[in-house]
Amino acid sequence: MSRLQVVSGKGGTGKTTVAAAFALALAREGGRTLLVEVEGRQGIAQLFGAEALPYEERKIAVAPGGGEVFGLAIDAERALLDYLQMFYKLGSAGRALKKLGAIDFATTIAPGLRDVLLTGKACEAVRRKDKAGRFVYDHVVMDAPPTGRITRFLNVNDEVAGLARFGPIHNQAQAVMKVLKSPETAVHLVTLLEEMPVQETADGIAELRAVGLPVGRVIVNMMRPHHLDEGTLRAAAGNHRAELARSLSRAGLGGARRGGLAERLLDPLLEQAAEHAGRVELEREQRAVLDGLDVAAYELPLLGAGMDLAGLYELATELRKQVGQVGTE
Q1: Contact residues for 325 (Cβ-Cβ < 8 A; gap 6+)
Q2: Residues contacting residue 152 through CB under 8 Å, at least 6 positions apart
Q3: 172-228: per-residue pLDDT in tens?
Q4: Residue 109 banded pLDDT, cuts 50, 70, 90
Q5: Which residues are registered as beta bridge partners of 191?
Q6: Among positive and negative, which fits the CA dihedral 78, 83, 85, 91?
């Protein structure tokens, strides 16, 4: 399995939750996963019930089987200071630039520079090795920007490498793209079975493929169970008031006399049945669109009790089941 797992998705689809569950699923049996966020929202800390993440790698969870998940909130300014020290040995001079506001100015007027720094830091973590020559992290999972901006975000180093024809900036950009456009990386898109998220997913996949970025999986999140069989669904889609009234009567609810309990239940039950049937049909239509994208999918259930730490571990377990032998796929 790719060592850099990038997770994107339309806002509201739960991409941060899925990224966190992915990190837990990958950090199994003693493995180490780094979960990074790049949008400054501290969503990872909130999910794990931790304090706001500083610009340092910090253990935030232990996965089933004893693996460890580390979290990192990448800060563009601090990443630029690292970059200046790494390539230009500025040291205290770089810190002086920060005090003068030059770092903030540079990352504000050049949004592309900010994305270069964020992706570069994540790729550095992917390549990093310890003194024994082993990778420090088995996997790096990135909670990336939304689908509408993911291709530009990941491909910005290609643009920078073309603008800077030589020197450390060119070399750094090329090194980053070597990771991002290789089998080491997989870009997953999170969606719901709703028209707008599915359309954004289809557009995102087309954009990623157009620039040669590796598409991973579509992750269908918040799947709701279907409680009705086909025959019942067809019946629910129609108006079967008389039949339902007789059923309620047989159930001992007092028949369908005016003002009785059965009478009061008829309209709400018919409305709920029709709504459920309509939702199932809509989900089938969107599933057909996803099937036409020729991308394998994972499915994660809607958790009725809402999302908490226990729910996050539940999603991680579900992901591991679907992936099979995570790490050998």
Answers
A1: none
A2: 115
A3: 778 888 999 999 999 999 999 999 999 999 999 999 999 999 999 999 999 987 665
A4: very low
A5: 220
A6: negative
Q: Which of 206-210, 241-245, 284-288 has the lowest mean pLDDT?
A: 241-245
140 closest CA partner among 1, 237, 302:
1
Q: Where are the alpha helices (DSSP H) in the chain?
A: 15-26, 43-47, 76-88, 92-99, 102-109, 111-127, 147-163, 167-180, 195-210, 230-236, 241-250, 261-291, 309-323
- For the CA atoms of 296, 300, 301, 302, what is the dihedral angle to 10 degrees? -120
> What is the model's pLDDT at position 228?
57
Structure tokens at 62: 């232990």
**Contact by Cβ (8 Å): 235, 283:** no
> Residue 262, exposed/middle/buried by CB under 10 A (0-12, 13-18, 19+)?
buried
**Does this model's pTM top 0.90?**
no
* pLDDT surpasses 90 at 76: no
Rounded-to-integer distance, Cα 253 and Cα 80, Å: 71
CA distances from 213 to 152, 204, 220 (A): 11, 11, 21
Dist. CA 204–CA 150, nearest whole Å: 8
Cα 224 to chain center, whole Å? Answer: 18
Which burial class, exposed, middle or buried, applies to 210 when counting CB atoms under 10 A from its CB (0-12, 13-18, 19+)?
exposed
Give the sheet arrangement for strand 139-143, strand by strand.
58-62, 68-73, 32-37, 139-143, 4-9, 185-191, 215-223, 297-301
pLDDT band, very low/low/confident/very high, at 258 (cuts 50, 70, 90): low
Q: Of 4, 5, 10, give the one whose Cα is nearest residue 197.
A: 10
